[in-house]
Amino acid sequence: MDDVLPDEFPLSMFYEALSKKLKNVIASTRGITAESAERIAA
């Protein structure tokens, strides 16, 4: 049931906007692992 009441903000719209904002951030973290983080910290 995807009915949205008049006083509700549809979560699908929220997640769609959020994913657009985070897409580049998530892509920029590709390849970062615990191993690579340890090498940088050492």
Describe this structure in words.
The chain is rod-shaped, with a radius of gyration of 18 Å. It has two helices and no strands. It has helices at 11-28, 34-41. With 42 residues, it is an all-alpha fold. The N and C termini lie far apart (51 Å). It is 62% helix and 0% strand.
Task: Please outline the major beta sheet.
Answer: none
Low-confidence stretches: none
Distance between the termini: 51 Å
Shape by Cα distribution: rod-shaped
Mean pLDDT: 78
Show the helix and strand layout.
Blueprint (H helix, E strand, L loop, with lengths): L10 H18 L5 H8 L1
Question: Which key features would you list for this structure?
Answer:
42 residues, mainly alpha, 2 helices, rod-shaped
Write a concise synopsis of the structure shown:
The protein is mainly α. It is built from two helices and no strands.
